Amino acid sequence: MALTGLQIYKLLPKTNCKECGFPTCLAFAMKLAAKQAELSQCPYISEEAKQALAEASAPPIRLVTVGVGDKKVEVGNETVMFRHEKTFYHPPGLFVRVKDTQPKEEIEAIVSQVAQYSVERVGLTLTFNGIAVENASGDAGTFAACVETVRAKADDYPLILISNDAEAMKAALEKEGGKNPLLYAATPENWEAMAGVAKEHKLPLALRADSDLSSLASLVEQVKGAGVEDLVLDPGKRDPAGTLAVMTQLRRLALKKNFRLLGYPIITFPGEGAETPEEEALIAAQHIAKYSGFIVLDHFDPAVAYPLLTLRLNIYTDPQKPIQVSPGVYEIGKPSPESPLLVTTNFSLTYFSVAGEVDGSGVPSWLLICDSEGMSVLTAWAAGKFDAEKIAKTVKQYGIEEKLKHRKIIIPGFVAVISGELEDELPGWEVMVGPREAVDIPNYLKTVWSPN
To answer: Sheet holding 328-332: strands in order across?
Structure first.
């Protein structure tokens, strides 16, 4: 049975050294009880306490890493069923599958397209995470050659190696480059051989049992007994309703029932439950939300990649901490003292929408960003985080007056109501009401703005 925070606290050294990253041992104990910290963070814990706390300190869903370096994928360590309860921590890895029966040129083209694809959103660069290579031929040499081809085109990308043959897996690993791939999959029929390969190379291993979760739990117990700790689960369902039900059940068992044998990340294959690429994308979106750790797609299309990456970003953004930019004065183009001054909030989507439209207008401008705690314009205004006093304070804080010859400031059209108050806060300034929508900024700057 899981221990309470106070029970855990009694077993800690009580030094309040803060080396664990928390202000007190009691705070650390509470985080351990909530499965939001790991016992290894305490440098002074005794061996006796480690044994007593092993069950309480282990995360309900094990953290599993695939790949190395900056492109590694970490999944697991989730603590809630629903994002709004707290947040989701580790976004699922998006992989694209190639098969060793495809022509080499086709494989190279797919891998290059995936590796080179990126899109920028709210200041973040979004990409797919890796390549899955399947031993569809059943031949170990062909599989190894395919892995070598993929690795040559995506040298630092994480790989998922798919084969039921342990000998083929060994041959592939000789060409993989030692970059911590995920091995897929151990089954009730081949688990001993696959566990042996995973243990020898110290690699994460995916387990698949199609019958029921009891069979999957038994398989986990067997593989763990063989010495493999980093596991990924495939419950075998492929249709949308089946995957939703079983993945929700797995999450509940791990978080609500603390059932350790099923407390691991999940791997899914949305293409195997879809009849068209469009349906595959819809199922993949479902898996991003509920509750996949590794998603292996059979098709790659930039038109599909962008919405999936955006969905993943939105779901795995902390709802209590909106993405935001630093307050300050930003130069768009090469503004002069006669250039316009616009003001908005530090919500990232607001900033990049406004900055993008200003840049597209071709009118060099100053963009003043107020600290609204990451809220959008209307939300910040309603919360009292973007009012006349806040804007005036920001103008003075960043010395914008020294950069301008004029005394004009353009506020968002949605907060036109504060224009009079702002003129009172900034004596000698003219407050201009700009457009409500960012898309109308270019026309406004070209037809309305004048420094005189």
So the answer is: 328-332, 365-370, 341-345, 408-411, 430-433
Closest CA to 42 of 56, 22, 60, 62: 22
Assign domain 5-57 to a CATH class: mainly alpha
- Is residue 208 within 8 Å of 188, Cβ to Cβ? no
From first to last of its 452 residues, what are the pLDDT tens digits of the chain? 467 788 888 889 999 999 998 999 999 988 887 767 778 889 898 888 887 776 656 678 999 999 999 999 999 999 899 988 888 999 999 999 999 999 999 999 999 999 999 998 877 899 999 999 999 999 999 999 999 999 999 989 999 999 999 999 999 999 999 999 999 999 999 999 999 999 999 999 999 998 899 999 999 999 999 999 999 999 999 999 999 999 999 999 999 988 989 999 999 999 999 999 999 999 999 999 999 999 999 999 999 999 999 999 999 988 877 788 999 999 999 999 999 999 999 999 899 999 999 999 999 999 999 999 999 999 999 999 999 999 999 999 999 999 999 999 999 999 999 999 999 999 999 999 999 999 999 999 999 998 88
- Placement of tokens 């814990």 in the chain: 45
CA torsion angle for 39, 41, 47, 48 (degrees, to 10)?
-40
Question: CA nearest 161: which of 65, 233, 95, 230?
Answer: 95
Buried b (16+ CB within 10 A) or exposed e, 134-171: bbbbebbebbbbbbebbbebbeebbbbbbbbbbebbbb
Q: Which of 189, 218, 193 is nearest to 205 (CA)?
A: 193
Cα separations (Å) of 290 from 36, 96, 296, 328?
20, 19, 15, 38
The CATH topology of domain 64-315 is: TIM Barrel (3.20.20)
Q: Is 210 left (phi over 0), alpha (psi -120 to 50) or beta?
A: alpha
- Beta-bridged to residue 432, according to DSSP, are 410
- What ranges do the domains of the chain cover? 5-57, 64-315, 328-447
Task: With both helix axes pointing from N to C terminus, report the angle between 191-201 and 213-225 in degrees, rounded to the nearest 10.
Answer: 50
Long-range contacts, 415-422 (Cβ 8 Å, 24+): 415/377, 415/378, 415/381, 415/386, 418/381, 418/387, 418/388, 418/391, 421/387, 421/388, 421/389, 422/388, 422/391, 422/392
Secondary structure letter of residue 324 according to DSSP: B
Q: In the block, which residue shows the tokens 């702002």? A: 422
d(C-alpha 128, C-alpha 157), whole Å: 9
Judge whether 320 and 373 are in contact, CB under 8 Å. no
**CATH code, residues 328-447:** 3.40.50.11600
Q: Do domains 5-57 and 64-315 have the same CATH topology?
A: no
